[in-house]
Amino acid sequence: MAAAHAEPAEPNLRLFAAKQTAAREPQAEASGAWAAADRNALPSLPAEGYYVGRELVARLGVPVGIVSLAMAWPEQPLETWMSREALADIADQQAARAFEEDLRT
Predict the structure, then answer these.
(1) Average pLDDT of each block of 10 consecutive residues along the chain (105 residues)?
(2) pTM for the whole structure
(3) Neighbouring C-beta atoms of residue 10, cutoff 10 Å
(4) 3-state secondary structure of 88
(5) Are 37 and 10 in contact (CB under 8 A)?
(6) How many distinct structural domains can be found in the chain?
(7) How far apart are CA 21 and CA 89, in angstroms?
(8) Domain range holding 84?
(9) Exposed (0-12), middle (13-18) or buried (19+): which is 49, by Cβ within 10 Å?
(10) Do 69 and 83 sit in the same domain of this protein?
(11) 49 with 26, same domain?
(12) How are beta strands 10-18 and 32-37 bridged, if at all?
């Protein structure tokens, strides 16, 4: 990530750091704060997130916000932030792929 630190901050790239709050049910909102992608925030953002966000800003020409799980919830899987419906879609797609693979063999 040293290369990202050497480059100037992207003024249209924002980072959201969620506060660690556990809940048994899905929440409509997450507590946290948005911050500019400046040199203070970059060490907590994975390099992939920075470069993808910067590329989106360049291609779309609009401000881009990145929610980085690594900033507040290290080692937490992305699926914990997804709705049950989205998870069901993924499971359905995986089952369909497995069925298709079985048909091919």
Answers:
(1) 54 83 78 80 75 92 82 68 79 75 74
(2) 0.56
(3) 19
(4) helix
(5) yes
(6) 2
(7) 26
(8) 77-105
(9) buried
(10) no
(11) yes
(12) antiparallel
